[in-house]
């Protein structure tokens, strides 16, 4: 018997539109060295590991007449070559070129008639590096039945190992429309929960259509009156169909040094860094902030809670609203305010330590980022400005078929009217920011990345007794951040 989509998955599908494709992605940079890692070897690696994520060979089957929710069925025409694609940059490809490619691929929705994922092998990066860009739909990765495919592709050793290759896999035959309808009726008779889920899903669909119609009427009324949206701010804008993507590479040791001086956690320091970065970005924009003194961020966090739905990761994910104090000029005060805001989460006894999360088998950040974005989509009613996921990963190198992973950047989907989303992954001594922005609403997305570096420099300076005081003003800080970034590379 096929598994049917739950109401929350149907809500994600219903929220998807040309301006809000609901998929997560991760871009990872590798040094092949002498491993010979290339596109063909990636195909072989995925063929070997896909047995651990069987849903990656399944597609959605709709039921005529909405007699039941859609079901996951094996794709009888599954073609791994369609999903694992080859791309290249003009050599030597720069990070700017890679970010532009990632933005374009992230802007395109997935084909719902096929398994809802794609993976791109990108050649031609400078220094002989290659990149993997994997994107999966939010309903595919639920942490319960399916983890992200990125979690099962990496090894702790450069030695190649075969784990789960299944040449004998054959798709189960898919029922036609009439049989699908009959199966829906049978499910409803045998499992009362199917009737409840179907009724709830249909009622929610009607409600969403009514809400969407009201929103369109309001939009037309505003247009006719010559007025813009009432709540239009730099962090609340109508979305286009295109994206921008910005990466920021920093060092974990800097955050630990700041934590040692000012207290709190590394997570506090990261969020305070983002608060300062967003403050700097907003100060560069010549527009009214409409009284915006703080940015309300939705921050998913891992907890142990028996009342939440179990996952295969050993913990659950819940959301915490954090006010990022963008009106506060002092970086130290911003850090203490963020730390105080998160103290309740730390004191409730349910939080999961970063060390425990980093020790989960495989590369768990890809799955946790996906779960975080799912949760943010479900909790949109709380009225936050942007979602931020911060996931600690292992602090040792990982390998894909012998190629060492150097960097990992999350690529988050944008929610309706939310032109920014930020993901942060720590891995092997680095802290990697992935900033997704709407191409039209945030044309200066690169400035956010630069301001994040400047904000970190401010915090580092506040924690240092030996370094000379940093020059005040954006010009001096920007020069210093660029110098440090160039030195790391």
Describe it:
The protein is of the alpha+beta class and 489 residues long. It folds into 3 domains: 3-166 and 173-187, Chloramphenicol acetyltransferase-like domain (Chloramphenicol Acetyltransferase), CATH 3.30.559; 191-224; 243-463, Chloramphenicol Acetyltransferase. The chain has 13 helices and 14 strands. The strands form 3 sheets. The protein has a 6-stranded mixed beta sheet with strand order 4-5-6-1-12-11. Strands 7-14-13-10-8-9 form a 6-stranded mixed beta sheet. Helix 1 runs parallel beside helix 6, helix 5 (177-190) crosses helix 6 (192-225) and helix 8 crosses helix 9 (331-347). The chain is globular, with a radius of gyration of 23 Å.
Give a short overview:
Pathway: Glycerolipid metabolism; triacylglycerol biosynthesis; Lipid metabolism. This protein has helices at about 5-15, 40-50, 80-85, 95-105, 175-190, 190-225, 250-260, 265-285, 330-345, 355-360, 365-380, 445-460, 475-489, and strands at about 25-30, 60, 70-75, 85-95, 115-125, 130-135, 245-250, 295-305, 315-325, 385-390, 400, 405-410, 420-425, 430-440.
Secondary structure topology:
Blueprint: H1 7-15, E1 23-31, H2 39-49, E2 58-61, E3 71-74, H3 80-83, E4 84-93, H4 95-107, E5 117-125, E6 130-137, H5 177-190, H6 192-225, E7 243-251, H7 252-262, H8 266-283, E8 295-303, E9 316-324, H9 331-347, H10 354-358, H11 365-378, E10 386-392, E11 399-400, E12 403-411, E13 420-427, E14 430-438, H12 445-462, H13 474-488
Parallel strand pairs: 4-5, 8-10, 10-13
Antiparallel strand pairs: 1-6, 1-12, 2-3, 5-6, 7-14, 8-9, 11-12, 13-14
Helix pairs in contact: 1-6, 5-6, 7-8, 7-12, 8-9, 8-12, 12-13
């Amino acid at each position: 018997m096929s598994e049917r989509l739950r109401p929350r998955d149907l809500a994600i599908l219903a929220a998807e539109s040309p301006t809000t494709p609901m998929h997560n992605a991760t871009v990872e940079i590798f040094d092949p060295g002498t491993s010979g890692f290339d596109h063909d070897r990636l195909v072989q690696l995925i063929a070997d590991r896909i047995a651990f994520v069987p849903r990656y060979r399944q597609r959605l089957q709709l039921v005529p007449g909405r007699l039941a929710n859609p079901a996951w069925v094996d794709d009888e025409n599954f073609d791994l070559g369609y999903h694992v694609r080859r791309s290249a940059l003009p050599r030597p490809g720069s990070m700017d070129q890679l970010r532009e490619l990632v933005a374009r691929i992230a802007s395109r929705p997935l084909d719902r008639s096929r398994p809802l994922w794609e993976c791109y092998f990108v050649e031609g990066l400078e220094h002989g590096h290659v990149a993997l860009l994997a994107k999966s739909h939010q309903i595919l990765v639920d942490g319960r039945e399916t983890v992200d495919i990125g979690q099962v592709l990496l090894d702790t050793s450069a030695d190649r190992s075969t784990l789960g290759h299944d040449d004998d896999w054959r798709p189960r035959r898919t029922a036609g429309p009439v049989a699908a309808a009959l199966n829906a009726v049978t499910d409803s008779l045998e499992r009362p929960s199917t009737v409840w889920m179907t009724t709830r899903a249909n009622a929610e669909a009607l409600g969403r259509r009514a809400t969407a119609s009201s929103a369109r009427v309001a939009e037309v009324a505003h247009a006719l009156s010559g007025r813009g949206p009432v709540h239009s701010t730099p962090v609340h804008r109508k979305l286009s169909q295109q994206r921008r993507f910005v990466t920021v590479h920093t060092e974990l040791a800097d955050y630990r040094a700041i934590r040692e001086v000012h207290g709190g956690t590394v997570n506090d320091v990261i969020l305070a860094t983002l608060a300062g970065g967003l403050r700097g970005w907003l100060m560069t924009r010549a527009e009214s902030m409409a009284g915006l003194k703080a940015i309300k961020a939705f921050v998913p966090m891992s907890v142990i809670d028996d009342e939440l739905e179990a996952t295969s990761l050993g913990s659950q994910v819940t959301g915490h609203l954090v006010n990022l104090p963008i009106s506060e000029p002092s970086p130290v005060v911003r850090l203490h305010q963020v730390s105080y805001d998160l103290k309740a989460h730390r004191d409730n006894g349910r939080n999961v330590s970063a060390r425990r999360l980093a020790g989960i088998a495989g590369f768990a950040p890809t799955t946790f980022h996906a779960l975080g974005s799912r949760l943010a989509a479900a909790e949109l009613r709380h009225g936050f400005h942007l979602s931020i996921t911060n996931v600690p990963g292992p602090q040792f190198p990982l390998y894909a078929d012998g190629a060492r992973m150097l960097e990992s950047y999350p690529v988050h989907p944008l929610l309706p009217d939310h032109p920014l989303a930020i993901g942060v992954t720590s891995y092997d001594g680095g802290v990697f920011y992935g900033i997704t922005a709407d191409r039209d609403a945030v044309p200066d997305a690169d400035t956010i990345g630069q301001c994040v570096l400047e904000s970190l420099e401010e915090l580092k300076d506040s924690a240092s007794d030996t370094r000379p005081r940093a020059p005040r003003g954006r010009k001096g800080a920007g020069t210093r951040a660029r110098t440090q970034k160039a030195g790391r590379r």
